[in-house]
């Protein structure tokens, strides 16, 4: 028998720390590319590392215990259940997964506040004080709840991350029906918002130039279409940033400018003398039908003010997620901060704008009303600053709303070629997307006036589909309060979508209420 000490009988070298497999993305960033394990049945109380517990390890020798403890730490660090699609490491939304709560707040603020907020006083002109406040409050808390639903459903199924809104819709409604229900409104919202931003940004740049240049300016100014082209070129230059995380700085700039100009506009409005013929009664229209459709259009404007849910899952997809640190925690922390600031901007803007102008509110929104009523009372430098902030915000918003479109183009390319996009291919796609939006804007220059219609058509993305998806994925007990509550919210959202869309079309065609953002003289 060997009389050597026990320490010499068992000599196992220290186990090296296992690292996450990585691949090199087109931008030089490293991104995890894991092979998934077979999915199995799981519950809320069991995980694959449950057996690797101190009680289980107590009878095992020290070397083997060290191996198992290291394996447990590795599994919990990299997210032991999550399957990562290798193609995701090549696409701009999921290429970089180093996001955090700060990035989530920046992106959510940038997507949630924009030019559409300046139209809220227009809705109050048709609804009045009571119904305007009630509608805005209900819409705010409703969309905040559906945002929480989307954040929770991002990893609702063990082993799967739904990185895009369409992916979650497919999981809930089925592969084919999910695409039909979610693809059109999300693409329409992203592409339509991008086109509207080109129109708004170009027209704002033209007005900014007129204010800075002054009445004695002798230069030959650009036409409106040429200003659209200038703004589109700036958008294309900024769009060369590779992925969603790389535009976090731009989103911060967009959020700061949106908060600044929205605060400036309502403070300047309430600080000036109100028009003498102001009234706070809802705008009277000749027929009852006209009044009903105008109210529906006004509610659509309020719905359009709460956009950005089509980007919630995409923003959350940029965050790392492990068993110990799931992505929904920092995402919801950032979203809460963002929506507190959004409420602090939207409510004063709507209430202050309606108090300052009442039913004399310009159909283009509070900034148009400020320029029309008080352009001679406010210093040119202050007005020019407000318009410049709008331009910067539009440039920032264009990037985050175009990112899903860029992602779709690149997904089609990588799925066919089975390789990542080169820098030149990626740049070509983004130039193409920018000029497509430009040509649509030139062909349909009234697109920026369809706030009510856009709000109606895209309302299910924010208010209805998340409720349906919660029931279909979480499967609450049938006929329980939870079950009835979500089905009711979902069907109400669909009904409101139809009503608001009809109201938007009627108001545009019959009432001539074209919500043109600026009408330069």
Automatic annotation (TrEMBL):
Renumbered to this chain, region (Disordered) spans 1-46
* Family annotation (InterPro entries): AA_transpt_TM
Residue ranges of the Amino acid transporter transmembrane domain? 98-508
* Cellular component, GO, one term: membrane
Q: Which domain of life is it from?
A: Eukaryota
List the transmembrane segments: 118-142, 177-200, 247-268, 288-306, 337-358, 378-402, 423-444, 450-472, 484-509
**Protein name, per record:** Amino acid transporter transmembrane domain-containing protein
Kindly list the organism's lineage. Answer: Eukaryota, Viridiplantae, Streptophyta, Embryophyta, Tracheophyta
Which organism was this protein described from?
A: Aquilegia coerulea
């Amino acid at each position: 028998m060997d009389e050597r000490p026990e320490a010499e009988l068992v000599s196992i070298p220290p186990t090296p720390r296992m690292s996450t497999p990585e691949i090199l993305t087109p931008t030089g960033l490293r991104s995890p590319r894991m092979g998934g394990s077979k999915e199995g049945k799981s519950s809320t109380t069991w995980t694959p590392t449950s057996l690797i517990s101190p009680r289980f390890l107590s009878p095992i020798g020290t070397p083997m215990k060290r191996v198992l403890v290291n394996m447990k730490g590795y599994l919990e660090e990299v997210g032991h259940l999550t399957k990562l699609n290798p193609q995701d490491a090549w696409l701009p939304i999921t290429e970089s997964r180093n996001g955090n709560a700060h990035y989530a707040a920046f992106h959510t603020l940038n997507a949630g506040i924009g030019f559409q907020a300046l139209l809220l006083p227009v809705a109050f002109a048709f609804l009045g004080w009571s119904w305007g406040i009630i509608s805005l409050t209900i819409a705010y808390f409703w969309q905040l709840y559906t945002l929480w639903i989307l954040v929770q459903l991002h990893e609702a199924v063990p082993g799967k991350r739904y990185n895009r809104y369409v992916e979650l819709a497919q999981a809930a409604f089925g592969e084919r029906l999910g695409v039909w229900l979610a693809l059109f409104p999300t693409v329409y919202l992203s592409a339509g918002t991008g086109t509207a931003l080109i129109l708004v940004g170009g027209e704002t740049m033209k007005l900014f130039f007129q204010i800075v240049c002054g009445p004695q300016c002798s230069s030959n100014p650009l036409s409106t279409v040429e200003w659209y082209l200038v703004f589109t070129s700036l958008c294309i230059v900024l769009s060369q940033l590779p992925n969603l995380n790389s535009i976090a700085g731009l989103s911060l700039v967009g959020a700061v400018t949106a908060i600044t100009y929205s605060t400036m506009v309502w403070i300047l409005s309430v600080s000036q003398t109100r028009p003498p013929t102001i009234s706070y009664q809802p705008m009277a229209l000749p027929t009852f039908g006209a009044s009903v459709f105008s109210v529906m259009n006004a509610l659509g404007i309020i719905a359009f003010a709460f956009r950005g849910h089509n980007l919630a899952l995409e923003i959350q997809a940029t965050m790392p997620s492990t068993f110990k640190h799931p992505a929904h925690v920092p995402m919801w922390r950032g979203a809460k901060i963002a929506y507190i600031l959004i409420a602090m901007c939207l409510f004063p803007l709507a209430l202050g704008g309606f108090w300052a102008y009442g039913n004399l509110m310009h159909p283009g929104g509070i900034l148009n009303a400020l320029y029309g009523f008080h352009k001679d009372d406010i210093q040119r430098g202050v007005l020019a600053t407000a318009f410049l902030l709008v331009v910067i915000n539009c440039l920032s918003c264009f990037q985050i709303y175009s990112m899903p479109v860029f992602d779709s183009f690149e997904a089609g390319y990588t799925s066919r070629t089975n390789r990542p996009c080169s820098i030149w291919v990626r740049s070509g796609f983004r130039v193409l997307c920018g000029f497509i939006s430009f040509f649509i804007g030139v062909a349909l220059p009234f697109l920026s006036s369809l706030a009510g219609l856009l709000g109606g058509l895209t309302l299910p993305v924010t208010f209805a589909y998340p409720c349906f998806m919660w029931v279909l994925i979480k499967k609450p007990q049938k006929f329980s309060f939870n079950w009835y509550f979500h089905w009711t919210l979902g069907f109400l959202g669909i009904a409101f979508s139809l009503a608001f869309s009809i109201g938007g079309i009627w108001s545009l065609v019959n009432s001539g209420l074209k919500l043109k953002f600026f009408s330069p003289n």
